[in-house]
């Protein structure tokens, strides 16, 4: 007499979840053909005399969130949102762990990333450099599912990108600033500033490109002055902008600034020192940090471009779990949109 087998035994033999086994046995949709074959093969190999359905044992997945170790408000906010989602992760049978890795040394970042091959999946916010791409390829080869979060790694073998369209975000900034400037003036040419750190993050690079595209299309009469090595701390950013402003050709009027990185508080202080206190001056930045909220309310910031970070964090886990379970359509997700925040819609 053959011994009955359980759904949990089939799931373990096939390397899938019990929920996936249940879908296959009941011939429900949503499971790809390769996974169906693996489940059916496991049933044949176990050779049981019947399937004991009972209450299934649900597998718990181990996912890692990998973030840069830099103590910037954006990275700290994402870290905090991951921690706040612990209850939702447990409910979904997910054990999450957050790794903060120094992004200043790409080789070391990639080396530490490669050591996470014991995870079922990884949500990655990383610099776009060759060493990281190779580490992602090795992880995928080892059977680890990888998605990028908020900043993509172009050309890598990651399975999905979760985050807003950063090229579109830059174009939105260009649209807003071009409308604030108005038509060309015969009295004095106009200039806007495009500020960025010396970055390896694709999100910031794409924002710069999108902004320049939109300004060139909508306000070709406006000169774009670039500062592409802006420090990330407020104090250093203040000093850098002070020097940059002092070196600008005064024949054109600086009418606005778009910054894709950090250090906004220092930028505001440097602009105030230089006399750029006109309410019509357009300063816009990314991400609703506590500092940016205060600057919006004070009128120092015209706009903050934001995406739903909580949605991104939770969607990354949802996609990773669906990939682990072989769910058809796992990559069909709605990406977060770019929101335009002002002092009037912060609530």
Overview of the molecule:
The protein has 347 residues and is of the alpha/beta class. Helix content is 44%, strand content 18%. It is built from 13 helices and 13 strands. The protein has a six-stranded mixed sheet, with helices on one face. β10 (253-259), α11 (264-273) and β11 form a beta-alpha-beta unit. The chain starts with a strand and ends in a 6-residue tail after the last strand. The mean pLDDT is 90.
Shape: elongated
Q: Alpha-carbon distance between the termini?
A: 67 Å
Q: What composes the largest sheet?
A: 6 strands, mixed
Structural class category: alpha/beta
Spatially, the strands of the biggest sheet line up as 9-8-10-11-12-13
Number of strands: 13
Low-pLDDT residue intervals, each spanning 5 or more residues = none
Mean pLDDT: 90
What order do the helices and strands follow?
EHHHEEHHEHEHEEHEHEHEHEHEHE
Work out the helicity level.
Answer: 40-55%
Query: Using only CA atoms, what is the Rg?
Result: 25 Å
Q: Total number of helical segments? A: 13
Strand content: 15-25%
Q: What keyword list fits this structure?
A:
44% helix, 347 residues
Give the secondary structure arrangement, pairings included.
Blueprint: E1 5-6, H1 7-14, H2 18-25, H3 33-46, E2 51-52, E3 61-68, H4 73-84, H5 86-91, E4 94-101, H6 106-114, E5 121-124, H7 130-141, E6 145-149, E7 160-162, H8 166-181, E8 190-195, H9 202-218, E9 222-227, H10 234-247, E10 253-259, H11 264-273, E11 282-286, H12 290-298, E12 303-306, H13 309-324, E13 339-341
Parallel strand pairs: 1-2, 3-4, 3-5, 5-6, 6-7, 8-9, 8-10, 10-11, 11-12
Antiparallel strand pairs: 12-13
């Amino acid at each position: 007499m053959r011994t009955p087998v359980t759904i949990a035994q089939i799931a373990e033999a096939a390397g899938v979840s019990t929920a996936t086994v249940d879908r296959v046995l009941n011939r429900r949709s949503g499971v790809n053909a390769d996974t169906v074959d693996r489940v059916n093969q496991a049933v044949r190999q176990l050779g049981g005399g019947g399937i004991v359905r009972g209450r299934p044992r649900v597998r718990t997945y181990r996912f890692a969130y990998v973030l840069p170790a830099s103590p910037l408000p954006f990275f700290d906010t994402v870290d905090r949102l991951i921690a706040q989602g612990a209850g939702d992760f447990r409910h979904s049978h997910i054990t999450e762990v957050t790794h903060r890795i120094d992004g200043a040394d790409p080789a070391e970042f990639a080396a530490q990333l490669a050591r996470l091959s014991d995870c079922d999946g990884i949500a990655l916010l990383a610099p776009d450099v060759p060493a990281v791409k190779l580490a992602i390829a090795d992880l995928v080869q080892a059977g680890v599912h990888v998605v990028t979060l908020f900043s993509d790694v172009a050309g890598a073998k990651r399975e999905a990108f979760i985050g807003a369209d950063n090229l579109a975000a830059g174009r939105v900034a260009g649209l807003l600033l071009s409308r604030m400037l108005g038509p060309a003036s015969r009295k004095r040419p106009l200039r806007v500033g495009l500020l960025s750190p010396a970055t390896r993050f694709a999100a910031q690079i794409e924002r710069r490109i999108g902004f320049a595209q939109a300004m060139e299309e909508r306000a070709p009469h406006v000169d774009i002055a670039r500062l592409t090595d802006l420090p990330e701390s407020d104090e250093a950013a203040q000093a850098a902008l002070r020097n940059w402003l002092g070196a600008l050709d005064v024949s054109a009027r600086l009418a606005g600034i778009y910054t894709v990185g950090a250090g906004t508080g220092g930028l505001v202080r440097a602009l105030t020192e230089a006399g750029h206190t006109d309410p019509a001056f357009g300063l816009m930045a990314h991400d609703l940090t506590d500092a940016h909220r205060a600057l919006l309310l004070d009128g120092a910031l015209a706009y903050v471009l934001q995406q739903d970070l909580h949605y991104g964090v939770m969607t990354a886990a949802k996609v990773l779990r669906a990939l682990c379970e072989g769910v058809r359509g796992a990559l069909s997700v709605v990406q977060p949109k770019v929101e335009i925040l002002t002092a009037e819609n912060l609530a």
